[in-house]
Amino acid sequence: MSLAAEAFVSQMAAAEPWPENATLYQPLKEDQILLSDCASSLAVQTYLRMCGLPVQVACRANAEYMSPSGKVPFVHVGNQVVSELGPIVQFTKAKGHSLSDGLDDVQRAEMKAYMELVNNMLLTAELYIQWCDDATASEISRPRYSSPYSWPLNHILAYQKQWEVRRKMNAIGWGGKTLEQVCRIRSAFATSSAQFFFQPTELDALVFGHLFTILTTRLTSTELAERIKSYSNLLSFCRRIEQSYFEDKILSVSLSLFIPSLIPSL
Amino acid sequence: MGTVHARSLDPLPMHGPELGVHADDIDTPEIEQDSKQEVLENKDVVVQRVHIDGLGRTKEDLLTYEIADVFQAKNLIDVMKKSHEARQKLLRLGIFRKVEVVIDTSQGVDALPNGLDVTFEVTELRRMTGSYNTMVGNNEGSMVLGLKLPNLLGRAEKLTFQFSYGTKETSYGLSFFKPQPGHFERNVSVNLYKVTGQFPWSSLRETDRGISTELTFPLWKTNQTLKWEGVWRELGCLARTASFAVREESGHSLKSSLSHAMVIDTRNSSILPRKGGLLKIHQELAGYTGGDASFLKEDFELQLNRTLFWDSVLSASLWGGLLLPIGDKPTCIADRFYLGGPTSIRGFSMYSMGPQSEGDYLGGEAYWAGGLHVYTPLPFRPGRGGFGDLFRTHFFLNAGNLCNLNYGEGPQAHLKKLAECIRWSYGVGIVLRLGNIARLELNYCIPMGVQSGDRICDGVQFGAGIRFL
């Protein structure tokens, strides 16, 4: 989003209170949504719950194309459409809802740096596993991604997406990495950031979204989830957030693609 | 765009036959059966041989059909007439640059005293012709490169490729056309294309990639077209500020449709006709052969022309259409009808009428529009017999309506809905004919029956297009 557009959005947003009918759009949760999108969507939902802002979740097969930035999730609030966690945090801040007000400048800068790191490492790793690991791509990602479309469009769109992600991976130098390396990177990262969770901020929402999704999603290899499970502080972090913000069990409904048997093990 | 009322992205103009001669406006003078010509007429002749000189890659069997009639001629006038017809037929194939006819008495040992030889001297088109031009419009400039391979396999087949590189969009089209030898009107064409269109009235951008096959043939007095089309459509918002209703339509869809069109055209010219009528019926069934979109679409166009006193012409036209969704999926914004603008109901802005959301027009599932025109030559007829004949003044009265129907209700309720809130307009203007394919209009319009949400163009309105109400 350009600076001018961002300024415009925040100015517009400040004028109106948060409406009751705010809606979050994500791909179809049963058949379509992928790990990375699900994690991002859960992060935004967690953040909005932490702020105490009500939001309805709507599933649309074309959510990705409806989003102004081409990324899910996005929220439709009043007549505003804002996509991805960063801009949504800005947007709620303009409306007077913020989680990071209690932090000093240094902490806030650190938090922003960590958030960037999560997006750069965790999200990239998720994308890598989804689209660059051949087994996952052919057994899970491509069929799920293209499930709403009819032949031959389903194949065209899935391969187009895969090609796009792979090109991006090559550009940032992840193209040659193996699954093993990627898992190591993310678990190493996860431990380093885990010490930051002493009060709920947007960073916690983001990390929770990603970790919880990884822990509860069935993939071709469970290596990733196993690695995260070996850190007890991460597990207790996930459990704490889940209990504080998702007590009403909406989560287990909204994330029905996850294996329920994993949740008690947390 | 700007010429079709129902949104459809036609591939770049490359529809099949390219007739060498536009004989529409030439009143063919009757061959006078004068008594002075008796001598020639009564003299029986026999066409002994027909030569075609200058053939290169063209197969001869294709031409035998076209020139066969010349052998039927029984007298000199007949020979000339038949040769002329054969020449027109040869030119129509679009494979010759030039065709000349030479009629001579037969020479040689077996020559009859009244024997004639007819020689067609033809010059074939080059194997490949290219063209380039630039276009400006819709806040966009583009460069169009065209490549044509006429007479590809020697039987009047044609392969055309067009590539348009614009500041915003890139489009291309590849088309293969094959007529049946001896019946040029019966032909098959296959098209492959990608077209991108921007529709600011709906804040919508549409990219179509598709393939279509078309079969055209004459039947009695009509011209029939059967077509299958498979299109991958990608819709997106033109701007961030697009309404949410348009945003919801974004994404990919696949349309596979069978369509049939029937045309009866007895007009003497397709632009500014003086007499005759036109009836066009088009129906499209999508979803039966696969794809995500399923609907049945019917629309028709009727035009009648009659010459009145002092070279003025009265023209009446009526359009109508209906889009019926099949199944419980609602219709797509790209399939619905649009109405309004200088080519349909004048006095309203382009396609700015009917159902809308936050200023973006969403189109309707049913429409009708009617127009009544009186065309007259320019006052005092400046430039008569030349440049001035390209212009006409016209007085018009347009009316129409566009809405969505609730198909649970009966036909009575539908008619009632189409009859209420009628938009209409009247005015006067000048029409300029551009070749035989397009026309420009400069009108002073007074819109009436404006409904809330319609965008009007009160006063002077300029229009350009190939299809007019």
Describe the structure.
The complex is a heterodimer of chains A (about 270) and B (about 475). With about 270 residues, chain A is of the alpha+beta class. Chain A has two domains: about 5-95, Glutaredoxin, CATH 3.40.30; about 105-265. Chain A is about 60% helix and about 5% strand. In chain A, strand 1 (about 25), helix 2 and strand 2 (about 55-60) form a beta-alpha-beta unit. In chain A, helix 5 packs across helix 7 (about 155-170) and helix 6 crosses helix 7. Chain A is globular and about 45 Å long. Chain B is mainly beta and about 475 residues long. Chain B has two domains: about 5-125, membrane protein fhac (Ubiquitin-like (UB roll), Roll); about 200-465, membrane protein fhac: a member of the omp85/tpsb transporter family (Porin, Beta Barrel), CATH 2.40.160.50. Chain B has five helices and 21 strands. Chain B has a 16-stranded antiparallel beta sheet. In chain B, strands 1-3-2 form a three-stranded mixed beta sheet, with helices on one face. In chain B, strands 15-16 form a two-stranded antiparallel ribbon. The interface of A and B includes residues 60 and 62 of A. Chain B: It is a multi-pass membrane protein. Chain B: Pfam families: Omp85 (PF01103). Chain B: It comes from Myripristis murdjan.
Distance between the termini of chain A: 38 Å
Helix share of residues of chain A? 55-70%
Number of strands of chain A: 4
- Report the structural category of chain A: alpha+beta
CATH class of the largest domain in chain B: Mainly Beta
Radius of gyration of chain A: 18 Å
What would the principal axes of the Cα set say about the shape of chain A? globular
| Oligomer designation | heterodimer
**Count of domains of chain A:** 2
Number of helical stretches of at least 4 residues of chain A: 12
Enumerate the strands of the largest sheet of chain A in spatial order, edge to edge or round the barrel.
2-1-3-4
Low-confidence stretches of chain A: 249-266
How many domains comprise the coordinates of chain B?
A: 2
Largest interface: A-B, 17 and 17 residues
| CATH fold assignment of the largest domain in chain B | Porin
- How are the strands ordered across the major sheet of chain B? 4-5-6-7-8-9-10-11-12-13-14-17-18-19-20-21
- The number of helices of chain B is 5
